[in-house]
Amino acid sequence: MEQDAYRDAGVDIDLEAAAVKSLISELTYRRTGKFGMASEIGHFAGFISFGKYALALAVDGVGTKMLVADALEDWSTVGIDCIAMNVNDLYVMNLEPVAFVDYIATSALSKEQMQQIGKGLNEGAKLANLSIIGGETATLKGLVTGLDLAGACLGIQEKEKIISGSAITPGDCMVGIPSSGIHSNGLTLARRMIEVHGSLDKKLPSGETLGSLLLKPTRIYAEVLKICSETDVHGMCHITGGGLLNLNRLGTHGYAFDTPLPPQEIFSWIAEAGNISEPEMYRTFNMGMGYVFILPKEGFETIKKYYPDAQIVGTVMENKGISLKGKPLF
Known about the structure:
The protein has 330 residues and is an alpha+beta fold. The chain folds into two domains: 31-161, CATH 3.30.1330.10; 173-328, Phosphoribosyl-aminoimidazole Synthetase, Chain A, domain 2 (Alpha-Beta Complex), CATH 3.90.650. The chain is 32% helix and 24% strand. It has helices at 5-9, 13-25, 65-72, 78-91, 111-128, 187-197, 210-214, 224-230, 265-274, 278-284, 300-306, and strands spanning 46-50, 53-61, 96-106, 131-139, 147-158, 173-178, 235-238, 254-257, 289-295, 311-317, 321-324, 327-328. The strands form two sheets. It has a seven-stranded mixed β-sheet, with helices on one face. A five-stranded mixed β-sheet has the order 1-2-5-3-4. Helix 4 (78-91) packs parallel to helix 5. Pathway: Purine metabolism; IMP biosynthesis via de novo pathway; 5-amino-1-(5-phospho-D-ribosyl)imidazole from N(2)-formyl-N(1)-(5-phospho-D-ribosyl)glycinamide: step 2/2.
């Protein structure tokens, strides 16, 4: 298993991108009158005009991490993941998340599952300072075979304060903020490696099991809003599904990662177990870096004030492309 490990495990990133492009090509209608669409589809979230404000909507789910929760009968943290995957997509445009709705689809209801999911959602809401204002639970026996958790989040910001990435300039530095681990993407490949080469209760050198590492909740980067109010930030990126490919959403610049953050042991184990190449690892996982700021170098100290574990990881270049330690990745 090397370059196509994720595809062989069941997820084809290139096909997914092409399929999404086909879907978006059909979404041509735009509302007329007040409160029209104020962005194009394709960034981390879409927003509509609301006077001097923009209202933004993001939607995401926990994905096949739910299968790990099912196997371990521990659903206590997946609610945090669900909120994190949404609010982090809002933070990248300096949008403040204010309200959230969840959607749970299941083949059979369980009070224990629902209570644990509720605790995680509540904790995520507290970390992101938002209100959960409603949701939907659907029992879909015959359509789903387990439990799926997703949600949508509403964010708001004054239009003039939105950060789209348009101000990114060659020479800007890139500052990486560590992830808490695998977060909530790439789990199809991670689970495949565990099925073939290990087990959820296998202990790594740290003493933690593979199962506990996979269930570690996604980090919520709520401090972003304070940083953007104190220093000039040109662009930001949430490193989620697709790994470093997410940077392509910010424009046709080059992104040279000369000093990447060290990946946590879960990533090293996956790469070694499956003999997966470094480019594919960085194309699939966050590899220890869950969030990236792009800004003039003098803004680094402001970031360090809120994220002591932040590190300058690279530089924006003229020529398009993503490189790692001097070698082209994509």
